[in-house]
Write a structure and sequence with these properties.
Low-confidence stretches: none
Radius of gyration: 19 Å
Helix content: 25-40%
CATH superfamily of the largest domain: NAD(P)-binding Rossmann-like Domain
Bound molecules: uridine-5'-diphosphate
Strand content: 15-25%
Strand order of the largest sheet: 3-2-1-4-5-6-11
Mean pLDDT: 97
CATH class of the largest domain: Alpha Beta
């Protein structure tokens, strides 16, 4: 298959690109390198530096490459940052996606896999969360993703567009090869920050909020190994290519770990002790996000391989110690 991947130089994007290549697909990466790393793109993959808001450039690229589908990762992702600078999130995540969809429509590219998020659920009533749970985001990041999901639904009803929206829970870990891994600047995610603390690069790790309605008072998340998440994209692509109808799938294991449990597991895996401090809640954080992923397992036949928190943290630790970018 011929696939264009926006944000393919980013964390989840690069792991998906690697998997797509390993499965014999022809891949083109489009990334503005605002957060991505060109080193994360394999040498045999065409890379084009382009911002998704540049509709004309996208049209030229699509006319030349003629992708059968687009996998769309390019977006701003930090929940905390979205509460401080929401406009930037709307411009990049919403306008950017509309620009991409417009370029796709004008070049007859009519399949898209969209990176959505568990943040669209806000504070869900049902946990593990099924896809039928109401969409009620509590932060601008989640709002922008919910906004695009609505647009996709409307557009797909009237245009010749089919889509799969994958609602990611917490992507974590790194490819066991050690060639690629998570590298955000600034880093805001829990596992890499904990590991930087274990490494001695940071003095301490902060727990944001200890008064949540959870057994140990800290937030609970469903951490999914990035390669299992990448696999969901491959399956979604095959699904759309074989005529599957537009749909939405949760991507997580259905198991939750608290911030304290992550820190304890990281101490065990790294064999290092480090300073942990308790701080106020971070704005915009729901208490518990755990996926009901039975739909992904059933309809897309997803069988995760790395559902093991110690393994996830081990691969992230290996990357942290031997980072290439
Ligand atoms: N978190 C924390 N300390 C940190 C970074 C994150 O306690 O230094 C918490 C955060 O408040 C959330 C969880 O860890 O409850 C996961 O946060 P992350 O930013 O990794 O992912 P998110 O769930 O926001 O996508």
């Amino acid at each position: 298959m011929k696939v264009a991947v926006t944000g393919g130089a980013g964390y989840i994007g690069s792991h998906t690109v690697k998997l797509l290549r390993e499965n014999g697909n022809k891949v083109l990466v489009i990334d503005n390198l605002y957060n991505g790393h060109q080193e994360a793109v394999p040498d045999d993959v065409t890379f084009i530096k382009c911002d998704i808001r540049n509709t004309e450039n996208l049209k030229t690229i699509f006319n030349e490459f003629k992708p059968e589908a687009v996998i769309h990762f390019a977006a701003f992702i930090e929940v905390g940052e979205s509460t401080k600078n929401p406009l930037a999130f709307y411009i990049n995540n919403v306008s950017g996606t509309l620009s991409l969809l417009s370029a796709m429509e004008q070049t007859a590219v009519n399949r898209i896999i969209f990176s959505s998020t568990a943040a669209v659920y806000g504070n869900p009533k049902t946990v593990p969360i099924p896809e039928t749970e109401p969409v009620k985001p509590i932060n601008p990041y989640g709002q922008t993703k919910a906004c695009v999901e609505k647009a996709l639904k409307d557009i797909s009803q009237f245009d010749n567009l089919s889509y799969v929206s994958l609602r990611y829970f917490n992507a974590a870990g790194a490819d066991p090869s050690g060639l690629i891994g998570e590298s955000h600047n600034p880093e805001t995610h829990l596992i890499p920050l904990v590991l930087k603390t274990a490494k001695g690069e940071r003095e301490q790790i902060s727990i944001f909020g200890t008064d949540y309605p959870t057994p140990d008072g800290t937030c609970i998340r469903d951490y999914i190994h990035v390669n299992d998440l990448a696999k969901a994209h491959l399956l979604a692509l095959e699904y759309l290519m074989s005529g599957g109808k537009s749909d939405i799938f949760n991507c997580g294991y259905g198991k939750g770990y608290s911030v304290r449990e992550i820190i304890e597991t990281a101490k065990k895996v790294t064999g290092r002790n480090f300073k942990v401090i308790e701080e106020e809640r971070r704005q915009g954080d729901p208490a518990v996000l755990v996926a009901d992923s039975s739909k992904l397992r059933k309809i897309l036949n997803w069988n995760p391989e790395f559902d093991d928190l110690e393994f996830i943290i081990k691969t992230a630790w290996n990357w942290e110690l031997n980072r290439r970018f």
